[in-house]
Specification:
It is a single chain. By secondary structure, the protein is α/β, with parallel strands linked by helices. It has two domains: about 100 residues, 2-Layer Sandwich (Beta-Lactamase), CATH 3.30.450; about 240 residues, P-loop containing nucleotide triphosphate hydrolases (Rossmann fold). About 35% of the residues lie in helices and about 25% in strands. The chain is built from 14 helices and 18 strands. A hairpin with a 5-residue loop joins strand 7 and strand 8. The protein is elongated. About 35% of the residues are buried.
Length: about 450
């Protein structure tokens, strides 16, 4: 109607918030979202003072904070805010990428060639990669930004070493490529791990899994079942594992073993994280500490549940050993179906025997849909070596897990196992639905 009256429809803003002194908006754009950054305005006088301050910094090495204080005195309050923001953005921050590096609502952002910065937003991950209004104008500017982010994250990228992957002080993962040696354009991709991990209720709100399915998995991990969460890259395996571990009682001791820190259970008082020490050069191999070594050491800490960030090799043997003596275990595996999972587990380098394979209770398969949404696709229960499907997303069928009922029956009397598990799953599902209603998510346009 607005167009018929000759009026221009203003694109809807779904979310607006601040990252420091910069405003961020998720705005509708056609049938997609658009990430809009509005930084403090640069007036002519602010630009001139910035040039002077930068010149002084180069010639005298004056501390940026002192420069900000010195030059801000000549400006009114709003111009002083703008001056300080842009000065520190350039001298201590990440220039054009400053907001992206500090916005905790961003899951990933990338630049693969000159053009707009693209990102995946935590409030709308189902929109996949969306564009922003921050544009890199040339290959030369992109070169500088890649070097800046890598160097300020504690690394180095040069023509002699043009491919770099490092972790920032916040454990975000920076992958950088310098053009000329292995690529036509420099590029950078930053994976930003959530400061506040996704809760299980949030995954329910996002539609990753139904409340009853979430409740069953929560119960399985709490009852010290042995669970594998399988999926391909970017399917949300670690996010789901993290959310399940966060649901565990506060009196549980949770020991996580990873090559790179991705699991975040800081809100749980019983969390003990262990990280492998990978060799950075041939000379450093003698001082490397593997996942297998960490898992063997983990057993001495009397954990309730042991979680391995991603199972790849012989560490699976040690996980099964932990399961056989009564510890709960959980891990992720890079595979997308049951047949391939079993083939990987029983072949080199994992080499599980049939009796060891029988120790695994549940296999959960999670996928990334074409529209970018994550979905728990299937769940299988291992009944004496026979894998029974208990959930299928396509049909919506969900069968109550028998093993969970058996474990509940050991501590309860008066009800049959299937009655116990039905009551407990219903109670937890209602709790998750109530929490999910309070979670903020941008719906599809």
């Amino acid at each position: 109607m607005a167009e018929l009256r000759g009026e221009r429809e203003v694109p809807r803003v779904f979310v607006e918030y601040h990252v420091g002194d910069a405003a961020v908006r998720l705005r509708q754009r056609d049938n997609n979202l658009f990430y809009e950054v509005e930084e403090p305005a640069l007036t002519e006088i602010v630009r001139k003072l910035l040039d002077q301050a930068m010149d002084e910094y180069v010639k005298k090495g004056t501390d940026p904070e002192k420069l900000a204080e010195k030059y801000s005195r000549r400006l009114d309050s709003s111009e002083a805010v703008s001056f300080r923001y842009h000065l520190l953005r350039e001298l201590r921050g990440f220039s054009k990428l400053h907001v992206f590096m500090h916005d905790d609502q961003i899951e990933d952002f990338t630049i693969t060639m000159p053009g707009p910065v693209r990102l995946i937003h935590r409030l709308a991950p189902h929109y996949e990669w969306i564009e922003s209004n921050v544009v890199v104008e040339s290959d030369e500017e992109l070169d500088k930004l890649v070097k800046l982010v890598v160097e300020r994250s504690g690394g180095s990228i040069t023509p002699a070493s043009p491919v770099v992957e490092i972790l920032t002080s916040n454990f975000d993962r920076v992958a950088g490529v310098l053009r000329g040696e292995v690529s036509f354009h420099s590029s950078i991709t930053v994976r930003k791990f959530p400061r506040r991990p996704y809760s299980l209720a949030r995954l329910v709100r996002l539609g990753t899994l139904k409340s009853e399915v979430a409740a069953a998995l929560w119960l399985a991990v709490e009852l010290k079942c042995n669970v594998i969460i399988a999926g391909l890259t970017g399917s949300g395996k670690t996010t789901l594992l993290n959310s399940l571990l966060l649901q565990l009682p506060k009196n549980y001791k949770i020991l996580t073993v990873e090559e790179h820190p991705e699991i975040n259970l800081k809100d749980h008082p019983g969390w003990l994280p262990l990280y492998a020490r990978l060799p950075t050069s041939p000379a450093a191999r003698q001082t490397a500490i593997s996942l297998t070594q960490l898992l063997k050491a983990a057993l001495r800490h009397r954990p309730t549940v042991i979680a391995v960030g991603e199972a790849r090799a012989e560490e699976v043997q040690d996980m099964i050993t932990a399961a056989s003596i009564g510890h709960g275990t959980a891990t992720t595996l890079h595979t997308d179906n049951l047949e391939h999972m079993l083939r990987r587990l029983t072949s080199h380098p994992m080499n599980l025997r049939s009796d060891q394979l029988a120790m695994i209770d549940y296999a959960v398969f999670i996928v990334k849909m074409p529209d970018g949404r994550r979905r728990v696709k299937e769940i299988y229960e291992n009944m004496s070596g026979k894998w029974e499907p208990i959930y299928d997303h396509e049909s919506g069928k969900f069968k109550l897990p028998e093993k969970i009922g058996e474990k509940l029956a050991m501590t309860s009397r008066g009800l049959e196992p299937h009655e116990l598990v039905a009551l407990e799953i219903r109670r937890r599902a209602e709790q998750l639905r109530a929490q999910a209603r309070r979670e903020e998510v941008v719906a599809a346009v």
